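hiii, so i know i said id send this last week but things got crazy w the move. better late than never?? heres the sequnce for the chain we talked about at the cafe, plus the structure i predicted for it. fair warning i was half asleep when i ran it
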Amino acid sequence: MWVLNMRKLQPSSAVLLSLLLAACLRAQPTPTLLLVNGKIWTVNPGLPEVEAVAITNDRIVAVGSSEEISSWKRPGIPVIDLEGR
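okay and structure toks below
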């Protein structure tokens, strides 16, 4: 097991490492649109159909059940109910 002792690093190295770790552990991207309660076909044979997607700008960032994707809901993010379509 590899252990890093932050006390033995130079101050600038410790700051750089902390920033790098923070960037790697960032929270999920904020979606710009949520589509829920739909029939969405994926290209994934292991998950051929989902109910909902979270979209950030022009990229799908998450797929799953309507309940899972609704957890991404924040004020100001439009949510479109596909009503089973």
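btw Residues 11-24 form the longest helix (14 residues). thought thatd interest u
miss u guys!!
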